[in-house]
Amino acid sequence: MRRRRALFAVGLCGVAIVAIVVLAVVLSENVVYFRTVSEAVNRRAADGNARFRIAGKVVRGSLHDTAHGVDFELTDGKATARIAHRGGQPALFKEGVPVVCEGHWGSGAVFDSDRILVRHGNDYSPPKVPDHQVRSGTQNAMAAADAVP
Amino acid sequence: MKAQLGVLALAIGASAAVLGICTLGYGLYRHDDRLLRTGRRYVLFVLLAAVLAVGAMEWALISHDFSLKYVANNNARGTPLLFTITGLWAALEGSILLWALVLGGYLAFTVWKFRERATDPLVAWATIVGLAIALFFFALMLGPAQPFEKVARVPFDGRGPNALLQNHPLMAFHPPMLYLGYVGFTIPFSFAVAALITGRFGEGWLADVRRTTLVAWGFLSIGIILGAWWSYEVLGWGGFWAWDPVENASLLPWLTATAFIHSVIVQERRGMLRVWNLSLVIATFCLTILGTFLTRSGVINSVHSFTESAIGPWLLVFLGICAAVGIGLIAWRADRLRAPGRIDSPWSRESAFLVNNLLFAGFALVVLVGTVYPLLAEALQNRRLSVGEPYFDRMTEPIGVALLFFMAAAPALPWRATSGRVLRDRLLIPAWAGGLAMVLAVVLGADGFVEVLTFGLAAFALAGIVRQFVLGARAQRRTASVPIAAATVRTVRGNPRLYGGLVVHVGIVLVAVAIAASGAYSTKRDVRLSRNQSATVAGYTVTYLGSERTRSAQKQTVKARVRVEHDGSDLGIYAPAISIFPNTTDGIGTPSVRTGLVRDVYLTLVSSPNERGRVTIGVAINPMVVWLWIGGGVIALGVAIALIPTLRRRVVVPVVAEEAPAGAEPAAPRESGPPREPEPVGA
After folding, report:
1. Contact B385 A123 (CB under 8 A)
2. What whole-number distance in Å separates Cα of residue B339 and Cα of residue B348?
3. pTM for this prediction
4. Does the ipTM surpass 0.85?
């Protein structure tokens, strides 16, 4: 009886350890980092093909429709990146608004995005957000409500 | 006037809580029954104070009294009455008021329910804990989250509620339901703490809070599903669950509470799992506070956190105190908490419950880690990141499937031990049903291992539940020849807890099928259409017929008229819209959903007509989504059944060997476990 209980305890610990390892691995595989445009540009070589989110403002006059979505430039005031987005855009997406794109660096220094999040109701969320925070705003600053294309 | 009334009410509430705590505490110290009887009456004042404060706030909202900052920020002259009333829970301060009201209601009900046992130290301690929690929330409203703060200069018009929160009538139901669930867990927590303090952690306190826990669980389940529905009907991205931190915040206590509801049965039956049950209750309560912290403190910016507020640290400290008290008390009582019972066989109901509990705990851990990891990474390492949905999907999928399996199999397992023959007798038909459903699903074109498995397990579970009902009704008919319907009613009334639980399981099956089907087989596309132009998505042809603008005091709306056709038949004209509210520059979409039993056609107006009159319309075909809402209704029905008071059995049903449905061993003397409740506990 004692032996059985000991075996059971060891087995349970084993299962728990395996479960925690799996959890850690899956978690680390699915962490999506959040970078401003200048951070992303600086880390382009290091990031390679890894997925992350890039935050900035859509440069006015840079937005074009393409066959699969839109093409535009994103800036944080210090650096600018070209974004090729495939898929739909949220209702609030337009030039001049702060957005976050999720994707990875593609060929020719273009960021391939497949998801755009638009910050919701600027006059609602924390009233006085300094502009630099809007640009580098955390992903948390993206409303749950934001359209996921 | 309203502000003074409100502040006065809050002050009364806080003082009543303090006085109640002191009176009860002193009464316990002096063993003075008179003080204990007096002390509990302060709960009534807490409730009255909360009613008064909420009344003052509603009065201010309805009379558009913009001298109150809260009203000025969350109401406007043009706001319709419904959303004026729901303004109470449209922002932080008001929702804390609602919290206090609900808590006052639960406390008053508990005190009333135990009016005969007012001098019982367990009840007195539980009341003290409940009052202390109420005191905390009243203190919040007198300190960092003042609902009755005045503005310096009264504006002519207010800003109106957050645009997203005045766009759908579900707003009137989702938050109150969620609060009725969240706050209800205060009662089991109070009794758990009281049981630990008084040293009476047998099974008595569990029986005392059984119904309240079930009520809270039911409301929380409904609240979560209504939240998903709101998200589906308002946010317009075509889905209902995105593993958003605020969604996770509501799911976390639900997971631990669900585990608790099941493991309670094991403790009642076999006296086992005492520490586990206490831990689950404490964890559930702490997770409701954590959820409030996540959604209300502004640490996560979303539709649920409207402004940054100072209550974050307060909630964190309160969470720390609650967790420390709970863990400390368990550690202090550790030597006396050893359970008398033990698991005899791995093939028994209790071990199935144990596995189910471990799975629920694992599920909660996965969600918790994914939710707080970004916060910890930012706080500790200053790294900004998010945890992608694939993490949640990949981790919770196998756990969910395993839970579905145990949900189907466990009710068929007898307590203590079983033989292969019993198992075969009870599970053979359900297993066939499950296998058949899987074949049928594949024939009908379902692919994906997890999805097909889910459909199979769903049929397995349903067949098992139907079998239990049929056997129960048959046994009834054997003793008294009554029609089938009457026999079923008698069966249910004989053991409402068991059969109510099984009905809840039916609801969960429906929800699981809806999640699997809509997650795997949805189609979504954005189409750009000029007037009278058509596009076809997954066999559905949508034609853009034109658009119209309307204007009201509340909002301006652009509605697109879209004809939907399928297989040559006209399904009617739908009108997805975008509304602009005066308080924001952004458009708020209103999807138009054609709900069907098999699939929904979900239309959104992605962009209103441009200069050339072209619109972008999002078309999504989402299978089986409606079963999610139906499942929610079934869950509510099951909870209601489980709350029916048990009739004392007059007819002694003979124990039918083997064929007796699991758990319906009515007159059989129980082999173990101290007798506590008059009813046979069987689920």
Report:
1. no
2. 18
3. 0.87
4. no
